[in-house]
Specification:
about 170 residues; alpha+beta; Peptide Deformylase; five-stranded antiparallel β-sheet; two-stranded antiparallel ribbon; binds zinc ion
């Protein structure tokens, strides 16, 4: 396994379209393992989408378990949000592609997602709470959107400065 290089805002790959995963082979397993190692190496990340490590593929991983608990990695391939709550919740979000940035974002309280697991088997899961927030954040990454597309133009300008400053450290 290896830690991959993260892509940071405003890298254009973060707003590029993704291709569906069609082949469930050893290359895919290795890529997912590398993504997991990359996510865990950050110590703070709870989710990671393929474009954030430079691959325009329709998949993301997340782990919202307590850092002191055993890992609970979710792998969502070709995900599709099929239902969502009317109720919304505003919460602070960070992103591994936006070091130094935390922004308040409005998300659905729960979402239902159809996706494939690593073996290519169809799954359907309802996510709520923090997991729902993370799913919607990662889903944006697979739909040519990032945190920067969820805030005002003025806030966006501040983001760029903060990312550049954080990367210089
Ligand atoms: Zn992100």
């Amino acid at each position: 396994m290896s830690v991959m290089k993260l892509r940071y805002y405003p890298d254009p790959i973060l707003n590029a379209p993704v291709d569906d995963v069609e082949t469930f082979d050893d290359d895919l397993s290795k890529f997912v393992m590398d993504m997991a190692e990359t996510l865990y190496s950050t110590k703070v990340g709870v989710g990671l989408a393929a474009p954030q490590v430079g691959r325009s593929l329709n998949l993301f991983i997340m782990d919202v378990s307590d850092p002191n608990e055993p890992d609970e990695l979710h792998v969502l391939i070709n995900p599709s949000i099929t239902a969502s709550s009317d109720a919304m919740l505003v919460a602070e979000e960070g992103c591994l592609s936006f070091p130094g940035v935390v922004e308040k974002v409005r998300r659905h309280v729960w979402v239902e997602v159809d996706y494939l697991n690593e073996e290519g088997e169809p799954q359907s899961t309802r996510f709520a709470g923090l997991a729902a927030h993370v799913v919607q954040h990662e889903y944006d990454h697979l739909h040519e959107k990032t945190l920067a597309d969820r805030v005002s133009r003025q806030t966006r300008r501040g983001m760029l400065k903060r990312v550049k400053r954080a990367l210089k450290k």
